[in-house]
Amino acid sequence: MAILVKLDGLLHDRRMTLSELADRVDITLANLSILKTGKARAIRFSTLEAICEALQCQPGDLLDYAASVKKTKPFQNKA
Q1: Closest listed residue to residue 57, CA positions, set 19, 29, 79, 25
Q2: Which of these, 24, 25, 28, 64, could form a disulfide with 50 (CB 3.0-4.6 Å)?
Q3: How far apart are CA 23 and CA 26, in angstroms?
Q4: CA 67 to CA 14: how far, in whole Å?
Q5: Helix (H, G, I), strand (E, B), or coil: what is residue 56?
């Protein structure tokens, strides 16, 4: 199971760059990039609220739940 972040699509639909969103939300570009790529482990409600306000969307427009997506651990050679 996984929570998917649909930030790319929302930015495209709003014709907004990640840098512009970072400025509007007052979050670092690096942290916003981590969220966009799905590598974030958590998000504060205040950040979620600011992103939704800047993009004029609902949290459900930004986040999706996919039960069939499984995360695997990278292969490690134990030689």
Answers
A1: 25
A2: 25
A3: 5
A4: 28
A5: coil
Please report, to the nearest 10 degrees, the dihedral formed by the alpha carbons of residues 3, 7, 10, 12 taken in order: -140
Query: How does residue 36 score in pLDDT terms, banded at 50, 70 and 90?
Result: very high
Half-sphere exposure of 29 (CA within 13 A, CB side): 5
Q: Which two tokens stand for residue 31?
A: 């942290």
Helix (H, G, I), strand (E, B) or coil at 63: strand
Average pLDDT over residues 58-75: 79
pLDDT tens track for 44-64: 999 999 999 999 999 999 999
- Asked if residue 48 lies in contact with residue 57, where contact means CB atoms within 8 angstroms, the answer is no
Q: In Å, how far from its chain's centre is CA 36? A: 4
Cα 41 to Cα 54: distance, rounded to the nearest angstrom: 22
